[in-house]
Each structure stands twice: as structure tokens, then as C-alpha cells.
């Protein structure tokens, strides 16, 4: 499998399960309706874990432009490959969102609230304050990228243990769960530009009854914040973990 296809399919799986758990919780007349934030954060954690296991061997399972750009910023990924990875991630995110729409077809009409419908696809702040919202996304994504790099640091890689391919992806999922539980409240923890922008685009294009607008005025926050945070987290790792 090519890295492009791996990033596309991995991000599609990520969004399918991630947006899918949100749909199950917020849309009306689902079996999981109103099951709460713990279910959403657990679902996203499992989505990340499963997606990473599926494509890690083929592309490194970035599945996130903030990760790709952060790694490139510290010389751990070629800048020439960044556009290819980001394009695959964006396309995969759109396709994953379309699959969620199809899976929950009867429930869009049964759900009156436009915010709930939009919330299936993308994030929104609990309190709209652009600067504070960006800061929250920067912190969350910095922790994500720093955590990924630290989990996979040479100190943790026992020779021939298979840690990086065996246990490490599951630990990345646990870390995403922790980020959601601890830092997800203010903005819904996009921490991934493709995860937010791709499904938001799908929301704008899909024939969802009574869907309302796609909140494009906020759309820059979960793009800019995670990219800044991804670079910051990667630089902090390189500075303080003393890794060449």
C-alpha cells in the first residue's frame, strides 16, 4: 500500500469511528443518544488506536497535518512529502464523514437541533473566544505531538521488542483519550486540522435536512491552533528530550 493510500484510509477510519461516536451520542433516536462525554472521548481514543494499527506499517500513521508538519519542522519527515500526506488526510477525512452521514441517514431528519448535526462533523467552542480557543487547541495539539514522539523515543524502544508497532499505537490512543478528558471541554479538542476541516466541508456539501450553516467563521481556529501546537510540541521534544 502506498503512503498516500495509507494516510487516506487511515484518516477515513479515524473520522468514521470518531465522528460516528459523536453521531451516536448527539443525534436523536439512536441507541446511544445522550450517553455523554465519556463515551465520545473513549470512542475517539479507540478510533485513533484502530486507525494507527491499520496503516502504521505503510505511512507511519500521521493521520493529522499537525503531526506531519510538526515532524517536518524538526527534520523527522521530508518537507517534500508534506503536501501529499496532507492531501490524503483531507480526502480521507471527507470520505469518513460521508460514511458517517450514510450510517445515520434516518437520524438527521429526526434531529431538529442544527448545532447537534454540525457537531457530528466538526468542533465548536463551549465559550466562543477566538484567542482562548486557539490557545486551547495549541496546548492540546502540542501535548499530542510531544506525547507521540516521547512514546516512540529511543529510550522506550527496547531492541527487538516490537514496542513501536505493538503497544505504542494503543498508548497513543490512551493519550488522545486523556487529552479529550482533560483538555477537550473548551473547544471539543480538534487537535487535527483534517479531522475538523474535512468533515466541515462534507457538512456543507451533503444534503442534510435542516442542517443550517457550517460555522466557517470558526473554521480557522481548529486549523491554525493545531498546526502551531504541532510544531511547538515537536520543537519542545527535540530541545528537552535531547534527540538528534
Q: Can you put this structure into words, describing what you see?
A:
The chain has 244 residues and is mainly α. The chain has one domain (3-240): Glycerol uptake facilitator protein (Up-down Bundle). The chain has ten helices and no strands. The chain has helices at 3-26, 37-59, 65-73, 82-103, 105-110, 114-121, 130-151, 168-183, 193-205, 221-240. The model has no long low-confidence stretch (mean pLDDT 94).
Corresponding CATH architecture: Up-down Bundle
**How many β strands by DSSP?**
0
The CATH class, by name, is Mainly Alpha
Q: Evaluate the radius of gyration.
A: 17 Å
| Approximate helicity band | 55-70%
Q: Structural class of the secondary structure composition?
A: mainly alpha
Shape: globular
Order of H and E elements: HHHHHHHHHH
The name CATH uses for the topology is: Glycerol uptake facilitator protein
N- to C-terminal distance: 29 Å
How many structural domains? Answer: 1
Amino acid at each position: 500500500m502506498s503512503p498516500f493510500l495509507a494516510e487516506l484510509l487511515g484518516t477515513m477510519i479515524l473520522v468514521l469511528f470518531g465522528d460516528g461516536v459523536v453521531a451516536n451520542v448527539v443525534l436523536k433516536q439512536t441507541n446511544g443518544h445522550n450517553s455523554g462525554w465519556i463515551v465520545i472521548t473513549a470512542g475517539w481514543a479507540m478510533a485513533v488506536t484502530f486507525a494507527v494499527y491499520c496503516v502504521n506499517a505503510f505511512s507511519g500513521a500521521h493521520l493529522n497535518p499537525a503531526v506531519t508538519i510538526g515532524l517536518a519542522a524538526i527534520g523527522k519527515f521530508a518537507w517534500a512529502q508534506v503536501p501529499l500526506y496532507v492531501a490524503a488526510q483531507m480526502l480521507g477525512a471527507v470520505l469518513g464523514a460521508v460514511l458517517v452521514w450514510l450510517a445515520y441517514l434516518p437520524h438527521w431528519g429526526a434531529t431538529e437541533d442544527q448545532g447537534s448535526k454540525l457537531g457530528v462533523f466538526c468542533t465548536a467552542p463551549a465559550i466562543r473566544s477566538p484567542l482562548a480557543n486557539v490557545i486551547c487547541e495549541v496546548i492540546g495539539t502540542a501535548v499530542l505531538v510531544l506525547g507521540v514522539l516521547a512514546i516512540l523515543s529511543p529510550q522506550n524502544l527496547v531492541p527487538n521488542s516490537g514496542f513501536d508497532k505493538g503497544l505504542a499505537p494503543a498508548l497513543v490512543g490512551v493519550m488522545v483519550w486523556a487529552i479529550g478528558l482533560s483538555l477537550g471541554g473548551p473547544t471539543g479538542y480538534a487537535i487535527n486540522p483534517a479531522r475538523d476541516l474535512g468533515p466541515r466541508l462534507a457538512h456543507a456539501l451533503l444534503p442534510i435536512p435542516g442542517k443550517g450553516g457550517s460555522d466557517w467563521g470558526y473554521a480557522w481556529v481548529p486549523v491554525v491552533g493545531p498546526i502551531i501546537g504541532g510544531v511547538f510540541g515537536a520543537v519542545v521534544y527535540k530541545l528537552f528530550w535531547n534527540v538528534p
